[in-house]
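Reminder to self: C-alpha cells first, then the designed residues, so the page reads top to bottom the way the pipeline ran.
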C-alpha cells in the first residue's frame, strides 16, 4: 500500500515529469472470488454491486499512486459469465452525474463508479453490461471524469463469437476521452483482436485520427495473449496501451505499454480497504507513459 504523495509515488519508480500521463489498471481480479456464504453470491446484482465496491477501493489506491486514470476489466469483472438472468443495469445518458444526482437505487454500479471517480479525483474507464429502453443489451464502456461525470459512453461494436446470444452490437462509433491533456481511445476486448481475424484496423486508425495517443483496453476473461497484442497495437499505431482482464476460472493478464511498444516501467500495490468477503488477489498496477 502506498503511503506517499501522488507525484512522489511515481518519482520513486524512476518515472519523471517527462512522461505525459499517469495511468493505472486493476490487475488479477476474479469477479467470483467472494467467500462462501457471502451475500455477494445471493444474486447477479449483488455480485456486481460487491465487485463495484472493490473497483471503488482500487480507485482509491490508484489515486494514491498519482494515477490520473484507472482502467477496469470488461463487464465480466462485475458479473462473471453472463446468462439471460444476469444483472444488466439500465444505462444512464452521457453527461449524467450519478453520484451527485443520487441515482444509487436503480443504477448502483454507475452510481458507485461515479462516486469513486469524484471522491478520488480520478478518471475511471469502466465497462458494464447494460440494458437500453428498447430492451436490447450491450457491453458498454463508461468513462467517468475526475468530478464524477460520465464523459464518454461507447458500446462494443465487434462482439466475440457467442456474445450475440446475450448482447446486441453497438454502431461503429470510435470514441475517445481526455485525461490530463492527453487523448485515450476506447477498445473493448475482442475489438483488440478483431483486426488479426479480419484485417480491418479501421477502429484503431479512426481513434488515432482523433488524436488518441493511448488506448484504454477493457478485456474479458483469460485472454492470455493480451500483452503480446498490446505491443502489436503500440508498434503499429505508435500509441501506448493500458489493458486489463478478469481472471474467472483462469489466469489474468494485463499490459501497460509505451508508444514504442515497450513495457512501461510500473509498480504494483495491494488494494487498501478490501470489501468484506473478497478472497481474491487483485491489485493495482501504475505507470507513467
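Designed residues (289 positions):
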Amino acid at each position: 500500500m502506498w503511503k506517499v504523495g501522488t507525484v512522489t509515488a511515481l518519482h520513486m519508480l524512476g518515472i519523471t515529469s517527462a512522461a505525459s500521463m499517469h495511468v493505472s489498471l486493476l490487475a488479477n481480479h476474479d469477479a467470483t472470488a467472494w467467500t462462501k456464504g457471502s451475500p455477494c453470491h445471493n444474486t447477479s446484482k449483488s455480485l456486481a454491486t460487491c465487485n463495484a465496491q472493490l473497483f471503488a477501493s482500487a480507485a482509491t489506491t490508484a489515486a494514491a499512486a498519482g494515477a490520473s486514470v484507472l482502467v477496469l476489466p470488461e463487464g465480466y469483472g462485475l458479473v462473471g459469465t453472463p446468462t439471460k438472468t444476469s444483472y444488466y443495469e439500465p444505462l444512464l445518458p452521457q453527461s449524467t452525474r450519478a453520484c451527485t444526482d443520487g441515482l444509487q437505487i436503480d443504477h448502483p454500479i454507475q452510481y458507485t463508479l461515479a462516486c469513486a471517480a469524484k471522491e478520488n479525483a480520478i478518471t475511471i474507464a469502466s465497462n458494464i453490461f447494460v440494458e437500453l429502453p428498447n430492451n436490447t443489451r450491450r457491453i458498454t464502456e463508461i468513462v467517468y471524469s475526475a468530478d464524477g461525470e460520465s464523459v464518454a459512453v461507447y458500446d462494443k461494436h465487434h462482439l466475440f463469437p457467442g456474445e450475440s446470444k446475450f448482447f446486441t452490437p453497438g454502431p461503429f462509433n470510435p470514441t475517445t476521452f481526455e485525461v490530463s491533456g492527453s487523448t485515450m481511445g476506447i477498445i473493448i476486448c475482442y475489438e483488440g483482436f478483431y483486426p488479426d481475424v479480419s484485417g480491418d484496423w479501421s477502429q484503431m486508425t479512426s481513434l488515432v485520427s482523433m488524436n488518441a495517443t493511448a488506448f484504454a483496453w477493457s478485456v474479458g476473461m483469460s485472454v492470455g495473449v493480451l500483452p503480446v497484442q498490446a505491443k502489436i497495437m503500440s508498434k503499429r499505431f505508435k500509441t501506448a496501451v493500458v489493458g486489463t482482464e478478469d481472471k474467472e476460472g483462469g489466469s489474468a493478464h494485463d499490459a501497460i505499454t509505451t508508444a514504442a511498444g515497450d513495457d512501461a516501467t510500473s509498480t504494483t500495490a495491494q488494494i487498501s480497504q478490501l470489501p468484506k468477503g473478497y478472497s481474491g488477489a487483485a491489485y493495482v498496477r501504475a505507470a507513467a507513459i
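Confidence is low (pLDDT under 50) at residues 1-19.
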